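Sample intake sheet
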Amino acid sequence: MKILQIHNSYKIGGGEDIVVRDERKVLEEKGTQVIPYYKHNKIIDSFSFLQKALLPFRSIWSQKSYNEIIEIIDLEQPHICHIHNVFPLISPSIYFACKKKGVPVVQTIHNYRFMCPNGLFFKENKICENCVRSTVFSSLKSKCYRNSRIQTFVMALSIFIHQRIRTFKDKIDGYIFLTDFAADKFKSQGYDTSKFFIKPNFKSSDANEHINREIKTSQAPYFIFIGRIEESKGSKYLEHLAHTLSKIRIYVIGEGDTNSLKKYSNVKILGKLPNEQVISYLSSAQGLLFPSRWYEGMPMVIIEAFSKSIPVICSNLESLSSIVINNYNGLTFEYDNVESFVAKVALLEKDKSLKANLGKNARHSYVEKYSINHAYENLISLYNKLLH
């Protein structure tokens, strides 16, 4: 079987890139040929002024991407096209290319871009679904996409056009949702549920990588945050935690605005690190801090934490609480309640027995739901259903 894998990477890497990499790896290890078609937003830095000015319109339709996909299909004859992200460089034009050539398309839904210009259902520091309640152009007032009214308009226009001509509903043969929560959001907008598949993300790890967490954490008593440092990810929660529990050490890995965190002596800013170092720090932590404030898909860092027997502290938003089960593999705090977040961190730091039980169950969750053992079978089963 040949799989044409398509992905547009963001400037700041994230979980989507890891999913693409790991799915390709497991498929190739099992003998499935993967044909990559990747674009990376870093190339935008080398664009001329005119190219940058036209970039938003390219997100509506890229003839270059269309032609390249047609050429690849003619040359490689893939059985399935698996798409992860097309914005902004690739564009939805490739759905039409695949349909023209009769290649079934499966789309992994990592966010809510088909309905929301910034893909998050989050603006002005709170959850927002105005774009589905009224129109995507309601995003203009808040400049939801890259804090630019012009770029927000073009992204909204792209979504509006492709909604009207039913690109996302008619040109895609199967949708991979990471959780039932995300599937329900698309179901409410009239997407064909017969095309729905629920397939969690996974991590390419095995039992041999299990680390004795109790010894590690006794040597390094800190909590860890891994991700983009911004308000949608809960950066203000980290500030409040550092201020309130000054004796708790917090390690922060990732890129973003760290200025407000630097003033706290109990916060160690590590910046962007190679994956091996990230895993090393995570494996030694008392718990993963995940105070994200939007409808996350299925964060890879949570799965990574589970694989290392590290409990997770996150909000009780339904999109997260279906993954992190309170008092089982982690602790959940009341959404939009920073005091509740601090209280859960304090509880985990104090109760060693609780930490041990949550860590054991976190590992069990990983083995049962998110290990590589299930990934290949799930993908191949899904592909075969589309081919028959």
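Comment: The domain at 207-370 is CATH 3.40.50.2000 (Rossmann fold). The longest strand covers residues 2-9.
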